[in-house]
Known about the structure:
Layout: H1 4-10, H2 14-39, H3 42-66, H4 71-97, H5 102-128, E1 138-140, H6 144-151, H7 153-160, H8 169-184, E2 188-190, H9 202-218, H10 220-243
Antiparallel strand pairs: 1-2
Helix pairs in contact: 2-3, 2-4, 3-4, 4-5, 4-6, 5-8, 6-8, 7-10, 9-10
Amino acid sequence: MAKPSEQGETGFSLIQLLPNALTITAICAGLSAIRFGVQGNYVLAVQLIIAACVLDGLDGRLARLLGSDSKMGAELDSLADFLNFGVAPPLVLYFWALQDIRSAAWIAVLIFVVCCVMRLARFNVSSKSETCDQDSAYFEGVPAPAGALLVMLPMYVSFAFADAPLLPDLLICLYMFFVGLLLISRIPTWSFKTTRVSRENVKYFLVGVVIAGAALLTYAWATLIALCVGYVGVVAWAWFDSEKPSKG
Length: 248
């Protein structure tokens, strides 16, 4: 953002307001996902949450690129994360398949929501700490957007294999509880923010992006299943690697 004196005199350019506009759009997507979940349009509800994840990945980077990041934008982004990744996904899951065991399912929903808000609070505190390593290649615990995508895995499976029976309600609740624990865990998880691609590998990276994008557009649910399974594998590898005793 511009300096306070400059803001008062010249106001904001439209391009400077774009990151916050993306955040507000993501909030609208999360709220709309809850609405469509209540109405039974679960495919659109999941698509809106995924759209919120994409917007979440863009707004902060765009703000830093434009030099328009601010404390207000950071707080707005955190509130959007709580709604889009902590509230909308478990509620959509609850409306989708957990109506037969409402009390037990609601406990699982509450646990996931609390774990997500604790994850976000911990991240906010650590990001404001003077001792925080902003260039770290790892997060502590699974990030909220990744947790939101992971917790909806049973829905991807159901959408991809329409004739397959639904998973038992209790198993879905236990899975939601497990993903919630991953959010507040101390497991080091890979951060894409600091990943660098060498000049020699840029062309292969771009081809990979095209392939992934085409797969998401053509076989969306199967691709999301593969991405979730792959991410769980990366998290499991990081956990086992962190448990190894140091040689020093």
